[in-house]
Design goal:
The structure holds two protein chains of two kinds. By secondary structure, chain A is mostly helical. Chain A is built from nine helices and no strands. In chain A, α3 packs across α4, α4 packs across α5 and α4 packs across α7. Chain A is globular and about 60 Å long. The two termini of chain A are 15 Å apart. Chain B starts with a helix and ends with a helix. The chains are: A mainly alpha, B mainly alpha. The interface between A and B is medium-sized, with 33 and 30 residues.
């Protein structure tokens, strides 16, 4: 149990996928202009990362390993993620229109989010069992959502400020992201 | 032989599944009140997204 808690805290705060691994930078920069978009994207990523990781995990151990096709993990995981995103969009559109209304616009963005693929591959590379796979997937997603939300609140305040002309927009956002990465690296001694 | 068949089976199944899901996803009408979702996207930094306005002009 302590092992799982350590893994969760580590993936959320210390080994954060955005600030330590620099993955998922596209939505980090692109969908962080306001809080509601950041939260919507965060929840959509949480859902897709957990679902796609579990499907990839099952496919790897139930099909690829018995057939001796472990080298196909990359291409199969990409296909699994693409299928899962399509299915999620279809399911929400058909059965939960209210959720589709709030998340629908973010779903196609997730197919191109390399963080999703990283989690699926990371679970296999580290030979995690099912419990560790779930905790790792949830932890990475929560870490992603947390950083995206914090960053969006900062960007909202930055939009209201008047920085130097050359710093307006992405330069100031990237400097802010760098400072956030420095701040979070201070949590490295926590575990 | 078993590996080749397995390879074709896994990739074929996933590829076909994606094609079928994509087809049905496109075919399913937008729910009431969501018709404007596509048009409401003004585009963000992710230009590879299918909803980015830069792709709309080429599709139409």
């Amino acid at each position: 149990m302590g092992d799982l808690l350590t893994l969760f805290l580590s993936t959320v705060l210390i080994d954060n996928i955005i600030l330590s691994h620099f993955l998922g930078m596209c939505p980090f920069m692109g969908v962080s202009k306001n809080r509601s978009s950041a939260l919507g994207m965060g929840f959509a990523v949480l859902f897709v990362i957990v679902g796609a990781s579990l499907l990839s995990y099952a496919l790897y151990y139930l099909a690829l390993v018995p057939l001796g096709l472990e080298y196909l993990e990359l291409i199969t995981f990409i296909l699994v993620i693409a299928c899962f995103v399509q299915f999620t969009e279809l399911f929400l559109k058909k059965f939960i229109p209210s959720l589709y209304k709030s998340l629908g616009i973010f779903l196609p963005l997730i197919t191109t989010n390399c963080a999703v693929l990283y989690v699926a591959l990371d679970n296999i590379t580290n030979s995690y069992d099912l419990a560790h796979t779930i905790v790792n997937s949830v932890g990475v997603s929560v870490g992603f959502m947390l950083i995206l939300y914090i960053f969006s609140t900062i960007r909202e305040r930055l939009d209201a400020s008047t920085p130097l002309k050359s710093f307006v927009g992405n330069p100031l956002a990237l400097i802010t992201a760098g400072l956030m990465a420095l701040a979070f690296s201070g949590l490295a001694g926590l575990i | 032989m078993r590996q080749v068949l397995g390879l074709l089976g896994v990739l074929g199944t996933l590829g076909s599944l994606y094609a079928v899901l994509y087809y049905f996803n496109k075919k399913t009408p937008e729910p009431e009140g969501c018709e404007e979702i596509q048009n409401s996207c003004s585009g963000c930094g992710i230009t590879s997204c299918g909803r980015h306005p830069s792709h709309m002009s080429t599709e139409e």
